[in-house]
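FW: tagging you since you asked about this chain on Friday. Here's the raw sequence from the shared folder, copied in full. Didn't touch anything.
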Amino acid sequence: MSVASHKRLDECAVRIIDPDRVRMVAGAMPDAESIEELAQVFGLLADPGRLRVITALLEGGEMCVCDIAAACGHTESAVSHALRLLRAHRVVRVRRSGRMAYYRLDDSHVRMLLDLALVHLGHKGEGDEPRS
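HL: got it, structure written out here
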């Protein structure tokens, strides 16, 4: 089969089936800048090391770098780097007390995202076996 005929098989015969739905969905889409920022946040959450740091803060509340590193099994340098990225994207915030810096999640939205993701992992879909 030639490339040209293969492309025709992949194309829709009808361009828009439900124009009202297409208009509604297109109108509800976030702007390009919001989509880019959202992709960056999900990208941050996609890294296992950063996810461990976030999970430590979920469970421990406000913590210093050395305690986060000990809880995660990472070096303080790796945790500091992760926290810098997370802070730059408003996932965590810092409070300074003298020479110490204490980190915590920026707001409850991050907790909600992770809680939903964990619920999703345990979700049983049709025909799926429950996860343990």
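FW: The chain is about 60% helix and 10% strand.
HL: agreed, and The chain has a mean pLDDT of 87.
FW: great, closing this out.
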